[in-house]
Amino acid sequence: MVWTIAITRIKLLLQSPWSWLGLIVPVLVLIFLDMSVEKTSDATKIPVVIVDEDETEYSKTVIERVSKNPAVSVSVHNEDDARNQIETQKAAIGFFIAEGFMESIQKNDEEGLVTMWLSSGSISHGLVREIFASEVKRLSSNSYGANTVLKTYGKSEKLDADEQAKVWKDAWAYSDKHWEPKPLMTVDYKVGVTRESSVEANGKSVSIYVPGMLVLLMLFSFFYNSWPIKDRDSGMRVRIPYAAGRFSVYWFGNALGVLLLQLFMLILLIGFGWWREALTLNVTTISGLIGYVLFLNALSLLFAYFVHSNRTWQAITLFVVLCTSLLSGTFFPSDELSSFLQRAAEWTPQYWIVSSLNQETLMIPFIFVGLSFILFVLSTLKAGDNA
Amino acid sequence: MIAAKNLKKKFGRKEVLKEMNFFIEKGETVGVVGPNGAGKSTLLRILATLMKGSGGSVQIDGLDVRKEQKRIRQKIGYVPQEIAVYHELTTRENLRFFSKLAGGSSEERWMQRCEEWRLAEHLDKKVKHLSGGNQRKLNILIAMLHDPDLLILDEPTVGIDISAKQEIVNDLRQLGREGKTILYSSHDAQELETLCTSFLILKEGELLFYGSKQKVRQFGSVAQSENFAETLGEIVG
Q: What are the sequence ranges of the domains in chain B?
């Protein structure tokens, strides 16, 4: 009987083609907005051109590492094109990596390794020069370290050519490892989805996909769970005890129908999030989001029990979605707010799901599921046969 | 079938039903009459187990409405004032859904009833596209899917035209002939006269009168009046 009720609820919610559009379009709008934000972010990067005459493993490594820096937008050209880009101010700075770059580095010869060209209007060359120089220095230091190790170690141990190459390579890799960016102190942002972890935004433009997704899931939960109010208006609530026996069965069946639809939406959102590389798929992310959806369903259902008119419901939906989204630090870190508002943020479900995604813990999803169970039991008991 | 003893209902300090006593025989079609605020809907809701009385007792088929709600509900079909069906679904989908909830009432049975009630040709239409009369018929049919002995109808013909009302009244009379006990609340005296065999007349929470149609005529000062509506109007004041 529960399934019959659940399927009928889904049918009712997806009666017209418009309701299907209502399900898909917000997801597409979110993706579009996310892409637009990324494009805008690209436009604010410093354009850099690089000419690679060396075309060795080292020059390619430098280009790759510089390209990963979120402050610059790198393009590789031949010398003429690069000069043209600088002269026409399409690029702010150019770097010319001459032939023999790798060889010079391996010999620890750092003189005239790279030539820098500046566009006349460039004001950011200091920053870019530092970025580029640090990557070249990194390779140079690695080589210096490896050469020193081999010189010292090679004297005491008689190594053949293969063994020497291996020692040099190991020393180089060991030195390189120390260049991985590890700050001297750890700044732990409790809130905010732009941190690394399952929400991949580190080194990229700030993504609005995850915050948008959390808002959408909440909005749809409240939107779909308006059925108890409509049922009360239409007299269905007094009819059901005679038809279904227990009102709680009807209550649970409808909640299940809405939950299935929400899960469908979640799959869509996770799928697109994965495609947009805004989300990493792992057990904690998926279980966190399922817990979040379950909790939203239970919460909105309990609210709907107490509300008696559609207008009030719309106002509550808007209020809850807006307030919790702004407060929770989903769109900006809540530590920019006053301490009172920071404490208030901890009462929002978004705060906890973001924490769960950041910390990659299963504890928060478990708490979500536990709370959902309590809320479901409460609303079912309250609704019960009290039609 | 229904025995009410000293039945009372209070909302806060306001007494909406005052010490009511009546006994309704099985197979009777009883009109529940009274002006707005007389307590008709409250009485029907208590009998339908949707609300509890504040004092006294009610028994339906020997079962106490306070203690044996579940068993009583199996014997009752309740038709609310609102058209409590899914308007976005078809007539067939509604009937199928509610018959599944009612424990799988056979499709043959409700199909037959649809034919008798001239709804068969509208089975595949969405309810929102049905006429008001047909929507009201479906509202009643759904309450009968679990084949109840007692049908409680709270103003089931509100807002529909005279011919549709007439059709519904005729269909309900047929149910009465089949032995169903019917409690019918309405403001339409003509409809009540055609359908009901006896009347419960309420005013300001008090039971003014309970008796047969003939006794209603004798009760008013317009004794033996040909105009039943006039008599009812006079009693109700």
A: 2-82+149-236
